[in-house]
Amino acid sequence: MSADPKVLLTDLLRAALNSVAPDQADTAILLERPKQASHGDFATNLALQLAKPLKRNPRELAALLLAELPASPLVAKAEVAGAGFINFTLARAAKTAVVGEVLARGADYGRGAPTGVKVQVEFVSANPTGPLHVGHGRGAAYGASLSDLLAFSGHEVTREYYVNDAGRQMDILALSTWLRYLAFFGVEVDFPPNAYQGDYVVGMARELRDAHQDRFARVTREQLLEGTPGLPPAERKDDEAKQQREEHLDALIAAAKRLLGQDYPWVHGFALNEQLGDGREDLDEFGVRFDKWFSEQSLFDTGLVERAVNQLEQAGHLYVQDGAKWFRSTDFGDEKDRVVQRENGLYTYFASDIAYHLNKYERGFDRIIDIWGADHHGYIPRVKGAIAALGLPPEKLEVALVQFAVLYRNGQKTSMSTRSGEFVTLRELRKEVGNDACRFFYVLRKSDQHLDFDLDLAKSQSNENPVYYVQYAHARVCSVLAQWNGEAAELAGADLGRLESERELALCARLAVWPELVQNAAADYAPHQIAFYLKDLAADFHGWYNAERMLVEDEALKLARLALAAAVRQVLVTGLGLLGVSAPATM
Length: 587
Description:
By secondary structure, the chain is an alpha/beta fold. It is built from 22 helices and 15 strands.
C-alpha cells in the first residue's frame, strides 16, 4: 500500500466523480488536512465545487459521491460534514505505512522528482569592502537554505554571488587602505570620515607594509593634498557639508590613481582580494557555498554593459538630458527615470545591473531568483522594466526580499555600518552562538519580516531554544537506537500494526506531511516552513518519548516503535540538512 494516502484518496474520488457527474470528470480534486483531528485525516470540498455547475445541493452531492466511492482498506470512515465537505478518516495501516517508506527511501524521502527546471539563485552579493556582518548573515542563511530546498524539490540550481569589484566603493576601499598604509611611513592626512573606518582596513594596510615595505609610500603629504578641496568642520551635518566631503574623497581617489600610476590597480586588487577572500572563507565556514562568483568588472571587460545600453537606446528607451543618458523607467512603473550613463561617460551601477541580468537571461535559466535586502524594494520595478525594455520576459525574474536581522546583546540593539566600522561581524556572531544556532535562527521567520536575534536564547540549552529542542530530539533517537544495538534490516521488517497509540499515529501523520511540505515550501520560497515543521516534529517526538517506553520486552512492539523513531530521525536529519544545521548524535 502506498504511504501517500492523498494520491489514493484522489483516485477514489475521481472514480466516484466519473459515476456521479461524468461531464465534470476533469474537475480538480483538492484534499486538505483538517486543523481539528475530530474532522478526520483529510477533507475535500469537491461537492461544493460541483454544486453550481450541477445546480445541486452540495450536501446531497457529497452523499452521492460517498455512495459511489469504491471500497478501500485505506479508508476507515468517510462522512459528509458541514456545508458539504467530505471528511476521511484513514485506516491505521494507511497511517503507519509511512514509516516503512521513510526507512526504505532514507535521505531521498521527500525528494522531488527531477523537473528539468534550471534555477539561478543569486544571494549575499555584498560589496567586498569589509567583513560580512550579521545582516548579511540572514541573507546568506536564507539563500543557502532556499537553494538547497529548491534542489531537493527537484530543480537544477545554480548558486551565485555577484562580486561588485568595479566602481566607486572599491576605489574608496583601496584609498582607505592606502591612506592607512601611508601613515605607517609618516605620510598622514586627515582620514576622510566617509572612507572605510574599521580596524580591518588598518590590518590590510599593515599586511601591505609587511609585504612591500615602502614601495607604495613614495609620495608626500603635499602631493596627496594638491588641488584637494578641504573638509568642512566635523560638526556640520548639512547637505552642503556632505557634498563637500564626497568631493574631498573623490579628489583623494583621483590623487591616488595619479600618484600610484600603474601600481594603483595592484593596490586596488590587493584590497579586493583580501576582503573577497575573507568573505569567501567566512561563508564557507558558515556552510554557505556558491557554484559561481560572477565579476561585475567582467561585464565591462566583455563589453556587455555597453551592449545592453546600446540595445536600450536603439529600442528608443533612452534619452539624453544634461549630457547624461536616462532610461525611461517610468514607462515601466518606476517612480522616476534613471541614469545609465553619466555626462562624463561613466556607466552607473544600474547600467551594470542591467547588463548582469541580460547575462543571466542569455545563460538560459528558466527561473532567476534575486535575493535582496528589503531596503532595495524600490529597485524591483526599474530592473524588471529594463528587462522588459530589452525584449525579455520580466516574469522570469523573481525577487525575494530579506529584512536585516536586529541583534540584541544584553538588551542593547547593536548598530551596524560598514563605513564607520561599528558593526558586529558574522564571524563574531558565529563564534558566540555557533553555526547551527545562526543558521536555524536566521530562517525562523519569513524572510521579509523583521527578525530580532535573541543571543541569550540562541545560546541556551533549553526547550525554549528551538534548534536545541530539534537537535535534542535527534540525539534522543540516536541514544535509544544505540542502546538497542540492532540491525536496520530488523526495523525494515517491523510489524507497524503494533503502532496503536494516539501519539504514535500523530507522529506517522506528521511524517506523511513531509513530502508535500517540501514542495510547498519550495514553491513559496519559504525555508522557514521547514524550521516550523521540524519544531512540530520534535515536539511530537518528545511527547511520545516522555509518555512511552521504546525498549519494551515485547519484541514486536519494540521493533515497531524503534522503526518509528528511526523514521523520525531520518526526517530530522534531512530537514536540518536543508537548513544547514547539524544533527548531533549526542548532546
